[in-house]
Amino acid sequence: MSTETDESAALAPIAERAAAPAAVTVPTAGNLTWRPATREDVPVWLALRNLIARADAEPYVETAEEIEEIFDGAWRDMTRDSLLGFDADGTLVAWGYVASPPGDVTLVRAFTWGGVHPDRRREGIGRELLAWSIGRARQMLAESGKDVPARIAVFAEDNSPADKARLYERAGMQVRRYYSDLARPLAGPDAAPVPEVALSGSLRLAPWSEAFDEAARLAHNDAFRDHWGSQPQTREQWAERAGFAPQWSFLVVDDAPDVDALLASPDTDPETAAALRAGEPLVVGYELAGHYPEDFAVRGYSFGYTDILGARRAYRGRKAALAALAAGMRAFAADGMEYAALDVDTANPSGAHGLYASLGYTKTTGSRMLSIEL
């Protein structure tokens, strides 16, 4: 288990640790006009984000659906959590956005994102925009009222411009975690066979369906409870899944769980316990996939992407996650995808790296998370 909960007992209140400014300072560099983002800005915001992605050789592009989804969550306040900078001609030059997931329990986090048009870099815009983002993040953490360890974080690709890494480091952010994006061919001489996975006892592989989605959320929260930096997802967070491919997603269900044993276990969380008492289905493993055709040209091949994969801790060792993953890989191949892809925390405690290597996955790109720990 993480030590974050143990550490919270010795921490000062979050309102004190966050050191939140009474008001965030809007950038002045670059002589830009700043205002919050609105849904009507999605087209120009998308265009700028993808222009930056191309300039920085990022291994993906954004979609309008992904940006529009940001405006759907009632837990966000985009009037305070976003900032767009326009030049005198009304062209979007820079953007910033901060989010604090509502489901955080033992660690409260605020994530920052942003970017500056490549032609307007080295004017101080990025530095001041990051300062605004960190200030807003501090406000979010203070307002959460959650007296637990806190984190202000940003993600960066390993091949990001060196100036970006220095910008984060000068702001007091340090590298805390590394991630690898993996892929494996699904056909051809280099493709390892997809394993046939037999499930034992009352475990059953099933295609994803809306009827099992809440049970899958509960399984995910249990599976990732001992993963570094992970926190439970609320129903609203779970519903945000731009690019979700239900036809490529699979679940493993226990049709006859030992309810008494699970209820007696201290590892069974309250939401799962309530679902068991109500006779709800028990998902014990899952593979939820995404379809991102806009990225095919960037990567140079078509692929199906496993967004999240896991198994309940009480069911580890029973191949539930492997069975779901293999089913997803077969579905990718059946639809003509050339590769299967996913990403993994390099220090994943479940031995995922070894599993993926045995299935023929190899690293294609990498990223890292930098943070200020409070």
Main sheet specs: 12 strands, mixed
Low-confidence stretches: 1-5
Into which percentage range does the β-strand content fall? 15-25%
Total beta strand runs: 12
Please name the fourth-level CATH homologous superfamily of the largest domain.
Gcn5-related N-acetyltransferase (GNAT)
Radius of gyration: 22 Å
CATH topology of the largest domain: Aminopeptidase
**Count of domains:** 2
Quickly name the level 1 CATH class of the largest domain: Alpha Beta
Mean pLDDT: 92
Structure classification: alpha+beta
Question: Roughly how much helix do the residues carry, as a percent range?
Answer: 25-40%
Structure report:
The protein folds into 2 domains: 169 residues, Aminopeptidase; 186 residues, Gcn5-related N-acetyltransferase (GNAT) (Aminopeptidase). The chain has 14 helices and 12 strands. It has a 12-stranded mixed β-sheet with strand order 1-2-3-4-5-12-6-11-10-9-8-7, with helices on both faces. β2 and β3 form a beta hairpin. The protein is globular and about 65 Å long. The N terminus is likely disordered.
